[in-house]
Write the structure tokens for this entry.
Amino acid sequence: MTREEALSLLARAQTFLDERAGLDSKDRPLKGKTVLNVFFENSTRTRTSFELAGKRLGADVVNLAGSSSSTKKGETLFDTFATLNAMHAHAIVLRHSASGAPHVVAPRSRAAIVNAGDGMHEHPTQALLDALTLTRALGTLEGKTIAICGDILHSRVARSNALLLPLLGAKVRLSGPRTMLPRSAEALGLEVYDRIEPALEGVDAIMMLRIQMERLGGALFPSTREYSRIWGLNERRLRLARPGAPVLHPGPLNRGVEIHEDVADGTQSVILNQVEAGVAVRMAVLESCVLGS
């Protein structure tokens, strides 16, 4: 994605946010179009916001969970998508545990494929909604410093944000235990910290990440209690950032582990703002993918 493409999607998403109620009283640009939400991994925020986004645009939205698909009977991903192709959908939103899954099926698909998260690879629409949330909170991302803290190694959210935010003019710091930091982070021109305090010093915004328990290959930290003590974002650590620095979290939150109760529910939290921005961003993405705008 180019900077211009990202800014265009964010601008369109902002118009949807400004309308608040979506397109209830206006023409529906995706009326008569079909969007399939195909989720092979569990999700609350992403699946629901894609469903709402499609419906607010006027599309017919069908949800398909991996647990109810024929892959449970041994069908391959390719055969599943061949079946979905035959149904002539206009967009397929795919979430899968295998990194690269959307890129594998896209060349075989008549429909536009939207990546809703693939393994430990990327989560593009999450990065876009994070950028929109940050822009609304800070005014601009140009010259701003954003700290992304936690389980960086297993986080597709961190990876997408590490690509998008610098494209929009921000400086990104990655911080986490050494066992949860990717070796390639510094090669991307990012600042990397194995302690949270120096990473938070003077930053304009903080994004906390949960421990990806489902992806851990072994014991990478002593205990959640110890992790919270050393890496949890509390009020004291929050004061290291610039006054009023917004706090983000892609969810789901593990309260008392990577983020403390008083911060998650505090005045600087924009976590629910991210959820609101998510619907608007996914409306912009679906509209662009289906209509080619």
The chain has a mean pLDDT of 91. The chain has eleven helices and nine strands.
